[in-house]
């Protein structure tokens, strides 16, 4: 009996040693991977005063068999990163880059300058309060890629959410020190689909800890989100009329021809709404009170805002992230510089684009309302923030009605 007890103790000791060695090996490997992704030197055109910025960039594989990998750019919080939450940022489109928009124009600490050859420090960066993780999603966007071309024809919301989930899990393996941090997801425009869908997937899989790792999800944030096709389309028409973008005659024609309750617009509705879209060729749809950019077609001129997708369904507007009259031009210039791509550990076989039109044109739009996810996650206690820039004429205005109709408190805020 004593002999068996000693044997059991020896087995337990050996297993403990093996576990420790395995854990140490994993930690060393993750640290090595982190350091290989660290951006060591100043980026081209980065002011020398910005040396205290700690950031990493590289790839996370989401499907080894198909050779799919998503590119990320991660900025640690400016102070106390070990105590601040982790926030993932996704841009929409579909097909637009979170590096080119979110990181380099909007909320990242380094903004591309107006010459497209350098960077300025952003005093209002969100990494003052959080560790910021920008992800170029889905594959085919920015520096993200697949070695299986047929993947690009399969893109839909479910596909994107699954890849994004695997990215989060694998990224946390590379950066295990952030596993315990409060985790938030954020984004804008068509990320009004991506963000809630990823949150729902994490919430669902967190309830099955034997098969899935825990992600410490606390909430999500969406800005000017595409939320529900009926509310969003109805809202665009009403906004265009109430802000005198279109005449009474155009508004009446569209209002009489369209009920927006059907996925396929009638020919009369399509013709009427095309008259609405035509008016946005004269102004900037992302800030109707600001001058438009005349540099080239990557600006917010409405020439590129109307795309035919999903058979004969509506001409879907590309909703770029935030107000952007010309900065997309500058980011394309900057991120196509060879020394910038090298510094960020990026792989590219062609020109980097702030938005990939082919993603938008071939995307399979199969989900037309995200509102049921809101209902589910609100009941589950997930924190949700929704914000809207009042000068942007696209997305979400009418979706506010849903929250009012379901007795959810809406707090109006101006800044």
What does the largest sheet look like? 7 strands, mixed
Radius of gyration: 23 Å
Instruction: Give the low-pLDDT segments.
Output: 297-322, 391-395
Strand content: 5-15%
Figure out the total of helices. Answer: 12
- Shape, please? globular
Q: Please report the total strand number as a whole number.
A: 11
- Report the average pLDDT across residues: 83
Helix content: 25-40%
Q: How does the helix and strand content classify structurally?
A: alpha/beta
In N-to-C order, the SSE pattern is HEEEHEEEHEHEHHHEEHHHHEH
Tell me the distance between the termini.
Answer: 75 Å
Organism: Papaver nudicaule (Iceland poppy)
Family: Belongs to the peptidase S10 family.
EC number: 3.4.16.-
Transmembrane segments: 385-403
Structural topology:
Elements: H1 2-37, E1 55-63, E2 68-75, E3 86-90, H2 99-106, E4 110-112, E5 119-121, E6 131-136, H3 157-174, E7 183-188, H4 191-206, E8 217-223, H5 229-242, H6 248-257, H7 267-279, E9 306-308, E10 315-317, H8 327-335, H9 338-343, H10 357-362, H11 371-379, E11 383-387, H12 400-405
Parallel strand pairs: 3-6, 3-7, 7-8, 8-11
Antiparallel strand pairs: 1-2, 2-6, 4-5, 9-10
Helix pairs in contact: 2-8, 3-4, 4-11, 5-6, 6-7
Family: Belongs to the peptidase S10 family.
Keywords: Carboxypeptidase, Disulfide bond, Glycoprotein, Hydrolase, Membrane, Protease, Signal, Transmembrane, Transmembrane helix
EC number: 3.4.16.-
């Amino acid at each position: 009996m004593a002999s068996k007890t000693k044997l059991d103790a020896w087995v337990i000791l050996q297993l403990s040693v093996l576990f420790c060695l395995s854990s140490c090996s994993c930690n060393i490997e993750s640290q090595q991977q982190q350091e290989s992704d660290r951006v060591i030197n100043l980026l081209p055109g980065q002011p020398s005063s910005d040396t205290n910025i700690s950031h990493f960039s590289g790839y996370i594989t989401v499907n080894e068999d198909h050779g799919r990998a998503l590119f990320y750019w991660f900025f640690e919080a400016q102070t106390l990163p070990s105590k601040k939450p982790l926030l993932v940022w996704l841009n929409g489109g579909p097909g637009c880059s979170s590096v080119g928009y979110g990181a380099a124009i909007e909320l990242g600490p380094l903004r591309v300058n107006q010459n497209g050859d350098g960077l300025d420090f952003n005093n209002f960066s969100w990494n003052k309060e959080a560790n910021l993780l920008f992800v170029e999603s889905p594959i085919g966007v920015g520096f993200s890629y697949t070695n299986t071309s047929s993947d690009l024809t399969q893109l839909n919301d479910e596909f994107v959410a699954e890849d994004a989930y695997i990215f989060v899990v694998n990224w946390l393996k590379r950066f295990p020190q952030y596993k315990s941090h409060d985790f938030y997801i954020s984004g804008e425009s068509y990320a009004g689909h991506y963000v809630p869908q990823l949150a729902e997937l994490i919430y669902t899989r967190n309830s099955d800890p034997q098969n899935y790792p825990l992600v410490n999800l606390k909430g999500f944030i969406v800005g000017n989100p595409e939320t529900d096709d009926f509310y969003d389309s109805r809202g665009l028409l009403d906004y265009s009329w109430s802000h005198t973008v279109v005449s009474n005659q155009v508004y009446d024609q569209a209002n009489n021809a369209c009920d927006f309750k059907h996925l396929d617009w009638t020919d009369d509705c399509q013709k009427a709404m095309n008259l609405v879209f035509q008016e946005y060729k004269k102004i900037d749809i992302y800030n109707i009170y600001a001058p438009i950019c005349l540099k080239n077609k990557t600006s917010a001129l409405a020439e590129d805002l109307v795309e035919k997708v999903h058979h004969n369904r509506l001409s879907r507007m590309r909703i770029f992230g935030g107000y952007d009259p010309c900065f997309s031009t500058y980011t394309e210039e900057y991120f196509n510089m060879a020394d910038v791509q090298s510094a960020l550990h990026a792989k590219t076989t062609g020109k980097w684009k702030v938005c990939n039109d082919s993603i938008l044109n071939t995307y399979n739009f199969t989900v037309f309302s995200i509102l049921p996810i809101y209902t589910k996650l609100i009941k589950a206690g997930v924190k949700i923030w929704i914000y809207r820039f009042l000068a942007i004429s696209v997305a979400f205005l009418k979706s506010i009605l849903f929250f009012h109709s379901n007795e959810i408190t809406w707090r109006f805020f101006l800044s």
